[in-house]
Amino acid sequence: MAGTLLVFGHGYSATALSRRLVPLGWQIFGTTRSADKAPELEAIGVTPIVWPGGDVLPALAAADHLLASAAPDADGDPVLAALAPEIATAAPRLRWAGYLSTTGVYGDQGGGWVDEETPPAPSTTRGRQRVAAEAEWAALGLPLHVFRLAGIYGPGRGPFAKVREGTARRIVKQGQVFSRIHVDDIAQVLEASIARPDPGRVYNVCDDDPAPPQEVIAEAARLLGLPVPPAVPFEEAELSPMARSFYAESKRVRNDRIKDELGVELLYPDYRSGLRALLEEEDPSCSRD
Questions:
Q1: Contact criterion met (CB below 8 Å) for 49 and 31
Q2: What CDD domains would the database entry show (predicted)?
Q3: What's this model's pTM, rounded to 2 decimal places?
Q4: H or E element at residue 100
Q5: End-to-end distance of the chain based on CA atoms, in angstroms?
Q6: 81-110: per-residue pLDDT in tens?
Q7: For residue 137, what are the contacts with CB-CB under 8 A and spacing of at least 6?
Q8: For the chain, which residues make up each domain, given as ranges?
Q9: What distance lies between CA 12 and its chain's CA centroid?
């Protein structure tokens, strides 16, 4: 059954969700910080609201579903800082609410496995901010579902451009593994949760195959028929503080709950199938076995 969804921070993941829901008759409002992005939202059937600045309260009053994807900062969650009382007042009208968090809340596990019952142990500032934001949203009394997303990739966010340009680097850190998720699989998890609400539930959103980052770059090169970039030891790599922080954590994330409870069958269960699909979408003639 279609409804009305308000998305705070209508970005990459929310766009994939909207592409699934709009054809089903959903009315979707999405906030964006930039008026320049409003036409992009309109093009996929989303009513844009430039916010902060614009009036989001009529959309909040109309919504029976709410999704928050804006990242917290040192001052906390920006949506709740501005609208916590209004959102709490809307809680009785909401049939479903979702918060997009990150698997970074689990911190460094030395390559070990985590699931939704693993206590958060963030080791980065971003991870600690996300744990705090999860708690802030949970305190509002919403029918809240928390989605802890692994590293996101998809159209426009694959490694192919850098491999083609010769700027891709295979940075190797012993024992390092990341979990990933294709943006279209995020969208189908969210849609499945909307169809099967279970307020208070937390879901890890990742594929079946945690892998070292250098293997992903090597696979992209193989698919393109280009030389595999040389390996660069982590200790010798010049990285931004943001990039270096990603290598501070290594873990494998379990995704059984999205399958067992939401009935999700991943479109791209590993990075190999996801990369093949991305390349074929870019150029069907580039399809390779």
A1: yes
A2: SDR_a4 (cd05266)
A3: 0.96
A4: strand 96-102
A5: 39
A6: 999 999 999 999 999 999 999 999 999 999
A7: 68, 77, 80, 97, 99, 144, 146
A8: 4-153+181-206+253-267
A9: 8
In the chain, count of helices (H) and strands (E)?
A: 11, 13
Q: How does pLDDT run across 52-73, given as a tens digit for each residue?
A: 999 999 999 999 999 999 999 9
Question: What tens digit of pLDDT does each residue of 232-287 get?
Answer: 999 999 998 888 888 989 999 999 999 999 999 999 999 999 999 999 998 765 55
Tell me yes or no: is domain 4-153+181-206+253-267 CATH 3.40.50.1000: no
Task: Centre a 10 Å sphere on the Cβ of residue 183 and count the other Cβ atoms it contains.
Answer: 21
Classify residue 155 by its DSSP letter: T
CA dihedral 116, 118, 123, 126 (to 10 degrees): 20
CB environment 9-30: b (16+ within 10 A), e (fewer): bbbebbbbbbeebbeeebbbbb
CA atoms within 13 A on the CB side of 17: 29
> Which pLDDT does position 284 carry in this prediction?
63
Residue whose tokens read 């059954």:
1
Q: What token pair was written down for 106?
A: 């689990």
Q: With residue 99 as reference, give the H or E element that holds it.
A: strand 96-102
The one-character DSSP state at 143 is -
